[in-house]
């Protein structure tokens, strides 16, 4: 038997008995007994407002710590890492786009995007040239004019800020992209362009993608789709 057959396929995300309750709350928001995302899989996650989607995103990125249970990303258990190790792991391996973009308002667009690379220790030498090229390619693909690079991000429109947040998430070519409701401020033309770009980049790098949205029309871009209520038994109890 070949070695490959002996090794279980690697999971991009693996959740086991994952529970989360906000401090002072009387019930869990998240209670997921078992769920996995395969490496290379592009998954669309949807659910009603308040179902716990953003909470789950924050648990997957290591921004929130579970009340109990395990979160593993790319076969690394986030729950046993120190806060510093989690930050380092996230910056190197996970591209995150939050609903609120989290750009630093007084830094320019270029500085915001380069900061992600700096955090991941990717700067210097040939990598610097490659980085500049990738930055321009991303700006182009996301239809952001290059003159915007030197503008403080606070001077950009909401749609432009959203695309900068996406460029920042993609700059390190992460193995896993976690994207929370990113298309809501884009018009349909820009949205289709963005979806195509995201799918192309993820396929090129065999990146896994977990994409959270209310916009069910986007489902057709994905390999799989999951209603959070179907995997989250905390949600089941509340229904
Ligand atoms: N910081 C917090 N402290 C206490 N409760 C919170 C906090 N953040 C969210 N919640 C509660 O947790 C539940 C899930 O919220 P969450 O934001 O994860 O839902 P969501 O599915 O992302 O919603 P939406 O689609 O509206 O963004 C809600 O009942 C919300 O009120």
Automatic annotation (TrEMBL):
<protein>
    <submittedName>
        <fullName>ABC transporter ATP-binding protein</fullName>
    </submittedName>
</protein>
<keyword id="KW-0067">ATP-binding</keyword>
<dbReference type="GO" id="GO:0005886">
    <property type="term" value="C:plasma membrane"/>
</dbReference>
<dbReference type="GO" id="GO:0022857">
    <property type="term" value="F:transmembrane transporter activity"/>
</dbReference>
<dbReference type="InterPro" id="IPR015854">
    <property type="entry name" value="ABC_transpr_LolD-like"/>
</dbReference>
<dbReference type="GO" id="GO:0016887">
    <property type="term" value="F:ATP hydrolysis activity"/>
</dbReference>
<keyword id="KW-0813">Transport</keyword>
<dbReference type="InterPro" id="IPR017871">
    <property type="entry name" value="ABC_transporter-like_CS"/>
</dbReference>
<dbReference type="InterPro" id="IPR017911">
    <property type="entry name" value="MacB-like_ATP-bd"/>
</dbReference>
<dbReference type="InterPro" id="IPR027417">
    <property type="entry name" value="P-loop_NTPase"/>
</dbReference>
<keyword id="KW-0547">Nucleotide-binding</keyword>
<feature type="domain" description="ABC transporter">
    <location>
        <begin position="13"/>
        <end position="239"/>
    </location>
</feature>
<dbReference type="InterPro" id="IPR003593">
    <property type="entry name" value="AAA+_ATPase"/>
</dbReference>
<dbReference type="InterPro" id="IPR003439">
    <property type="entry name" value="ABC_transporter-like_ATP-bd"/>
</dbReference>
<dbReference type="GO" id="GO:0005524">
    <property type="term" value="F:ATP binding"/>
</dbReference>
<dbReference type="Pfam" id="PF00005">
    <property type="entry name" value="ABC_tran"/>
</dbReference>
